[in-house]
Amino acid sequence: MRWLLQKWDFFSAALLAVVGGFFLPHNAVKDITTELIAFFSIQSAVILPAMIFTAGILKPDGLELEDAERYHKALKAQMLFWVALLGLDFVAVVSLIAGKALDWNLVLPMPERFQPIDLGWILPIILYFSGSLAVFRTIPFVRGVLSLLDVNSDMTVKAINRRNKIESAEKKAQADPRPMTLPKDYGKIIEPEGE
Questions:
Q1: Which of 50, 120, 119 is nearest to 78 (CA)?
Q2: Which of 39, 123, 151, 173 is the most exposed place for a label (fewest CB within 10 A)?
Q3: In the chain, which residues have pLDDT < 50?
Q4: Which of 121, 132, 112, 124 is nearest to 39 (CA)?
Q5: What pTM value is reported for the model?
Q6: For residue 133, what are the domain limits?
Q7: pLDDT at residue 192 in the model
């Protein structure tokens, strides 16, 4: 049951695709194709900087080896999520462009004895699935960006702590460990001459 809850977005997108493919006409999105292409293009434009930031976030300063390995594993999973989301946007845009080019009709001609096969439902179902899944995954996308902020802050704190420890150790190494002795007659009040 937990697995189903974790994959709610996938199953919801599949359900929407089936329902949309069955109940809506093939050209249901004909009048809003341009707007949908713009929406998925904007979403892709937002994903690309997140991918670039994810790729360059790991800095060696302040990290222990096991921390670096743990961060790398988490960031790789994050990057795969970005790639999948970007792929969903591309599939949605390609299905929109193909549907518009074909006027949302796709008929497979058959030999004379058979009826042509209407495959006009394929592009809308692909669009409904990839588009709705891309929209559903926008929520984890925002969480992912916030987690990158947390990772970056955590690494910055570790780098500052490490630098402070190094500076403290250097100051201790440079300090004279001998106790400070005051010169003889230090602090003695000297009377002015000639009084």
A1: 50
A2: 173
A3: none
A4: 132
A5: 0.74
A6: 32-162
A7: 81
Domain count, the chain: 1
| Encoded amino acid at 81, one letter | F
* Amino acid making up residue 121: W
pLDDT of residue 195: 60
Q: HSE on the CB side for 85, CA within 13 Å?
A: 28
In a domain, 176, yes or no: no
d(CA 80, CA 74): 10
The number of angstroms, rounded, from the C-alpha of 12 to the middle of its chain's C-alpha atoms is 22
Measured distance between the N- and C-terminal CA atoms of the chain, rounded to whole angstroms: 101
Q: How far apart are CA 57 and CA 69, in angstroms?
A: 13
20 found inside a domain: no
For the chain, the average pLDDT equals 85
Residues 75-105: pLDDT tens digits? Answer: 888 889 889 999 999 999 999 999 999 888 8
Cβ atoms of 123 and 8 closer than 8 Å: no
d(CA 110, CA 21): 23
